[in-house]
Amino acid sequence: MENILPEPLTKKLGDRLRGVVGDAWVIADADRLLAYESDGLTAYRKTPLAVVLPRDTDEVSRVMGILAEEDVPVVPRGAGTGLSGGALANGDAVIVGTARMTDMLELDPDNRLARVQPGMINADLTKAAEPYGLYYAPDPSSQSACTLGGNVAENSGGPHCLKYGVTSRYVTGLTVVTPEGKIIELGGFGREPGGYDLLGLFVGSEGCFGIATEIEVRLLPKPEGVKTLLAIFDRLGDAGAAVTEIMAEGLLPAALEIIDGPTIRAVEASVFAAGFPTDAEAALVIEFDGIEAGLASDVERAVVQCRAAGAREVRIADSEEERLALWRGRKKAFGAMGQIGNDLMVQDGTVPRSKLTEVLARISEIGVRHDLTIANVFHAGDGNLHPNLIFDRSDADELRRVELASTEIMAVCVEAGGTITGEHGVGLDKRRYMSLVHTPDELDAMRDVKAVFDPRGRMNPGKVLPDLPDSAGAAV
Amino acid sequence: MNSLAGMLTDRLSAAQVVDGIEAERWAVCGRIPQAVVFPESEEQVAEILSLSSEEGWQCIPGGKGGWLHGGQPPQGVDVVVSAERMNEISAYEPADMFIEAQAGAELEVLERRTLECSQWIALDPPGGERGTLGAMVAVGAAGPLEAGFGSPRDQVLGATLVTGDGRVLGLGGRVVKNVAGFDLLKLVTGSWGTLGMITSVTMRVHPVPATDRSLLFKGRDPAEAAALACRLAQAPLSLAAVELLVPGDAESGANASSPLVAVRILESVDGADEAERLVSERAGIEPFQRLEGEQSAAIFENVRAMEDGAELVLRLSLLPSRLPELVEMTSRLSGLYDPTEGWGMRLAGHAQTGVLRVMIAKMTHSTDGLDQARVVLGVLRRSLEAEGGSLVVSQGPPEIVGALGAWGDSGPVAPFNAGIRAAFDPASILAQGRLPQ
Ligand SMILES: Cc1cc2nc3c(=O)[nH]c(=O)nc-3n(C[C@H](O)[C@H](O)[C@H](O)COP(=O)(O)OP(=O)(O)OC[C@H]3O[C@@H](n4cnc5c(N)ncnc54)[C@H](O)[C@@H]3O)c2cc1C
Ligand SMILES: Cc1cc2nc3c(=O)[nH]c(=O)nc-3n(C[C@H](O)[C@H](O)[C@H](O)COP(=O)(O)OP(=O)(O)OC[C@H]3O[C@@H](n4cnc5c(N)ncnc54)[C@H](O)[C@@H]3O)c2cc1C
């Protein structure tokens, strides 16, 4: 996508937008726009024309109507924690942010449903549901910051998606404002509308089809019991093998997460220290949840498998504090890694879990060959890898090697029968890998479907789909 | 042989095309196709559909043809394209927990294969084991286990679709987590053959749980049973299924005659005992029967087969806590059938998702009777829709489903549905009219 630098917002457009949301909620001065320049993937930076912060569906609809009339491209944005550059806008586009749309609209414990505004933070939903013994299952590691709207757009996962599934399993209904400003309802729990599963299609559409302005989700009863284990390995491959064996045993842990040696050392050197031994090459966090009485035997079987795979130590967290420390260590690992180097390229790919050991070895070899530090922390049970490439943006050669290594890692994932992104989305960053997993016909079908929602190509342009070969960089 | 069948024979072989009397068994909602064709590969499917696009033949993709009478009647039926001869299991990787098979594979065959490795496909759609994988995905059908494991849309990892104009699209993949581009796979589930012919499907499999136990609770009447089902669905634990079962008016036998709630527990051995205790406590009564293993599975197999021989099958929905209201509303259907004909009217309610299946053995067939049925069902649909619910006619006489529509209006999303259909089937040859406009 070409970098289009912003022109000042015209008075006419500015006035019209302010007329809907109020003066305070249209941001157009250069200083304040800096905050919207990038997302969690800091390698990309772009300055939008302006940022508009509406309060509810009606305001979003009116704002979108104006932007449609003025033919201005739109980029939705939640908390900006995305890791594929999805929420970035060129200088000719306006960001519509959901920062003021944080309300709980309805909580219905009997039906285990919540209806929320899209700017609500993931963790706040679980907090609101807790008094009723309920919680929201998808738990991205960024859950204390990311929004449910962002989760919907990325079809986000998290450690506990191994047992519980990703966002799409929990979103039961959406109110969406289309690029032309129309309000439509998709899905809805307790009804079976005919026609295509537009709700399922919208989830994971990365802000390219419209803006979700209300989200209805399913909540789950909090499991009666939870048991968390930590297995320590001297070789990363052995931890991978343990994962394969635990699943082959017919066990279904709530989570199976691997943290490798470099990550352990980063975490232990940070404020999130969780007590992982720093001389280890892998820590495997295993969690079982469900009916308390059933957990002991699962734990026992998992311990046996870990030992058989070569674990030098297996600990069972025996207090809630210890359990939370383990999870803090895991969930804050990206943050901790920030302390190793200046910049972090969080890669994301999925492989069949039986290929974990083989693929991890190949990734490590890629790191050595390009002289890069690669730290792995990932959702092992789902085969969802996160090799993190640590670099310094000001070092042009290192940046080049990061690009090369990323491309090779993607190719390895695809070759192993996997894919180029498991949960962070394509955004800007992975458009160039799309043809590794999709034929031209498949990409065309995606273009056609996008055009159904966004015939003028104004909605989050230049994301997800690669440019057409003959269009010389023009966005779809 | 008619000319259409002749042209198909030229492209394929005589052994792959039937017409005339042999095509009668493949009638779609009462309309007999001019030819039924049995492709043996994706390429052949693409060739048939491209040719049909050129010729403007109306095609219905199908499996074994066991339920072509279900759903909304299509506008035209020239060719049925059956996946029956594409029935191989192409990959099964127990460690990676997926199985991939051609669309014509029977669910029963997949079940047998996965059981060898102590795994299963956790779906129990209506109709039983003889249906094909492709058909299950095409109609997107789920049963009681949806509460515990999700519907096909949640469990299909990938599929191959041949579009109306013969493009072959590989959608999704073999891994659970995959967000590489827009999720077109979701469109395929429940597309009823209108976007293309599904030629292969990759399904998620699950480990077979150590314990399969069903607890049966009796209710004095349907209302009491429905209230109990609701209470159990709200129990603070994850149950595989909570099903309300109301036998037909004319069904007798000591246990079968009263309404039941069947709770299915799929857990580890110790977990199952504890779950049973929690469920009984919440029910406030002891189960009158407790089924284990194959017997537990069998009662839910029966649920799948409950609509065998039904002339009218409806799905009423509201939020789960309103299941008792749905049950009560079925009294409005009493004029539609004669309770002494066959088994009368049966009900099966998925208490965690708020769907009540209503099965009527034999409708009152005078012109007056059918007119009245249309009116009653139309009114019922409108009142459910006003409450945020819906009424789907899963299967019924074409006079009813044709006039009423299997589903209600799509409202403001209709143009999006139409746009998507045009993108996959530009010549408008696939199952036109099967889905609401
Ligand atoms: C430390 C860290 C850990 C992470 N861990 C995980 C993890 O475990 N699992 C995981 O899946 N991801 C993870 N992520 C990635 C990221 O948090 C998720 O993708 C998250 O869902 C993004 O939410 P957001 O509110 O920040 O969205 P943004 O970054 O603001 O936007 C992301 C995309 O969503 C679109 N969008 C936002 N809101 C809407 C809306 N209302 N309607 C339509 N489109 C919208 C945007 O246009 C953009 O394309 C992590 C990120 C970080 C920084
Ligand atoms: C007695 C009975 C009752 C049933 N009740 C219901 C019900 O209430 N609700 C429900 O959803 N399902 C119902 N089913 C359907 C069931 O879930 C299976 O879908 C069915 O058994 C299909 O098997 P089949 O191969 O014979 O399908 P077929 O009869 O060949 O096809 C069924 C439908 O799926 C489409 N289809 C089949 N294969 C493909 C393909 N490869 N690509 C694209 N489209 C395809 C067809 O066009 C047709 O609309 C019922 C089935 C039976 C036998």
Search tags:
heterodimer, A: 476 residues, alpha+beta, Uridine Diphospho-n-acetylenolpyruvylglucosamine Reductase, domain 3, 3 domains, 7-stranded antiparallel β-sheet, globular, B: 437 residues, Alpha-Beta Plaits, 8-stranded antiparallel β-sheet, 5-stranded antiparallel β-sheet, binds flavin-adenine dinucleotide
Question: Can you offer a commentary on this structure?
Answer:
The complex is a heterodimer of chains A (about 475) and B (about 425). Chain A has about 475 residues and is α+β, with helices and mostly antiparallel strands. Chain A is about 35% helix and about 20% strand. Chain A folds into three domains: about 1-220, Uridine Diphospho-n-acetylenolpyruvylglucosamine Reductase, domain 3 (2-Layer Sandwich); about 225-335, Alpha-Beta Plaits (2-Layer Sandwich); about 340-425, Alpha-Beta Plaits, CATH 3.30.70.2740. Chain A is built from 16 helices and 20 strands. The longest helix of chain A has 20 residues, at about 395-415. In chain B, helix 8 packs antiparallel against helix 11 and helix 12 (about 365-385) packs parallel to helix 13. The model of chain B has no long low-confidence stretch (mean pLDDT about 95). Chain B is built from 14 helices and 19 strands. In chain B, a hairpin with a 4-residue loop joins strand 5 (about 90-95) and strand 6 (about 100). By secondary structure, chain B is α+β, with helices and mostly antiparallel strands. Among the domains of chain B are: about 5-80, 2-Layer Sandwich (Uridine Diphospho-n-acetylenolpyruvylglucosamine Reductase, domain 2), CATH 3.30.43; about 90-205, Uridine Diphospho-n-acetylenolpyruvylglucosamine Reductase, domain 3; about 310-410, Alpha-Beta Plaits (2-Layer Sandwich). The radius of gyration of chain B is 22 Å and the shape is globular. In chain B, the strands form four sheets. An eight-stranded antiparallel sheet of chain B has the order 15-12-14-13-17-18-16-19, with helices on both faces. Chain B starts with a helix and ends in a 13-residue tail after the last helix. One flavin-adenine dinucleotide binds near residues 66 and 132 of chain B.
